[in-house]
Structures are given as C-alpha cells and as structure tokens.
Amino acid sequence: MTKHRDHNNAHPAIRGYLVLYNAVQGIGWSLCLAACLSAAQKGPDRQSIFLAGSVYASIVPSSPVTNFLQWLGRANALFMFAVGIPELQHLSCAPLMLIVWSLGEMIRYPWYGLQLLHACPAWLTWLRYNAFLLLYPTGVVSEMLLLWKGLPYLRSRDLYSIHMPNKYNFAWDYAIFIQIMLVLYPYLWWGNFSSLLRQRSKKLKAPVAAGGQRAAAAGKED
In the chain, what is the greatest distance between 2 CA atoms, to the nearest angstrom? Predict the structure, then answer.
C-alpha cells in the first residue's frame, strides 16, 4: 500500500504488461482470500498459507526501500513463522494476517490497473485511500502477534540461528533479532502509515477542490 510510480505515459507495451501484471495479482490475491475464508471454516491448514506464499513470492517491489522492507517483513512472517512453525497456523492471528493482506491487495492492484487504463471509478479510489485505515493497523498487529507467539518455538527449537564455531566465524541469534524487530515495528509502521495519510489527504481533497473551483467559475458566469 505504498506509493506507486506513474506509468500513464509509458510505452504501450509497458502499460500493457503492467495492466496484465496487476490483473494477475488481483486475481491471485482473490484466490488467496477465498482459500483463507475456506480454511477458517474448516480450521487453519497449510493450503491457504502456501497459496498466499506463492502469490506473494511473485511480487516485485516497485520502490527500492519502503516496498522492499514491507515485502521482506511480510515474507519473514509468512515463511519463517506461519509456514515454518505449523503450530502457529492454529492461532487466529495467522489467518487474520492473510485475510487482511488479501483484502488490501485486492483493492490496490485493480486500482493500479484501472488507473493505467484511465477507467478507475471514484468509489475504488475512495476505497483505496480509506480501507488502509483499518486494514494496515490490523495487519501489523497480526504480524506482531504471530512473531511474539513464535518466539518460544524459536528458542526451544533453536530455529534459524547460527552458532559458533563455524568456518565463517559468524554467529546469528534469530530470536534476539525478532525481539529487536518487535520493538522497531511500531516506528517502521508509523513512518509508512503517515506517508499513506498524506497521500490520502492529497487524493481525496483534489476532487473536492476541483469541484469548488468549477462552482466558483459557474458563479462568476452567472
């Protein structure tokens, strides 16, 4: 849900590729949501987890820093915790995390694609810049809960850590890394969330301002 590049003036072939890419991503995340909802009725299972992973692994970050960090954080929560620790799949925060991700991307990718076609309805733009107010905090809290609940398994099973001695003379305690990340999560989240709030203010105020200018011009003509 971060700022997207403007490709409206790109070469027709590039625009066609981007429209197709966004359509495929929108369909993929719709399938992910359907799998999550089905799994929620039957009890969490790996079907929805792996489906989300296969969709999410195909996403190429569109900006070098913010989007990559968001992608990396989600990939960590998905593969290292939701997939890597099967016991966590039975917690409500795991399917909730995937459902929130799916809903957000089901809005985001169609919006991008329709913007390229100059055919985006106003209601979708409104949804694009309002749904994140609920979805983004819910997703972040779900991710943090998943990581917090996974800490005991990381310690008891010594998962993803590297101990010395080894030929690289390098040590890595993954559990401590996750604890540090949990402290940083709110600060990293707020930086991205505040950026989205600024984008929302510009996008949603622009039509109102344009309408006011038209009304003023009509009043002068009268």
Answer: 85
The answer to whether the beta carbons of residues 144 and 182 sit under 8 Å apart is: yes
| Section 32-53 average pLDDT | 66
R_g of the chain computed on alpha carbons: 21
Q: How many residues does the chain have?
A: 222
Sign of the C-alpha dihedral, residues 16, 20, 23, 29?
A: negative
Running DSSP on this structure, what letter comes out for residue 162? B
Q: How far apart are CA 158 and CA 165, in angstroms?
A: 16
What lies within 8 Å, CB to CB, of 137 at 6+ separation is 189, 193
DSSP state of 83: I
Q: Which residues contact 51 (CB under 8 A, 6 or more apart)?
A: 31, 32, 35
Task: Tell me whether residue 146 is exposed, middle or buried, using C-beta atoms within 10 angstroms of its C-beta: 0 to 12, 13 to 18, 19 or more.
Answer: buried
User: Partners of 172 in the beta sheet?
Assistant: 162
Whether the bond between 165 and the residue before it is cis, its omega within 30 degrees of 0, is yes
Q: Is 198 exposed, middle or buried (0-12, 13-18, 19+ CB in 10 A)?
A: exposed
DSSP letter at 10 equals S
For the chain, the distance separating the N- and C-terminal CA atoms, rounded to the nearest angstrom, is: 44
**For residue 190, how many other CB atoms are within 10 A of its CB?**
12
Query: Tens digit of pLDDT for each residue in 103-126?
Result: 999 999 999 999 999 999 999 999
Q: What's the helix, strand, coil split of the chain in %, to 5?
A: 75, 0, 25
Q: Is the pLDDT of residue 60 over 60?
A: no
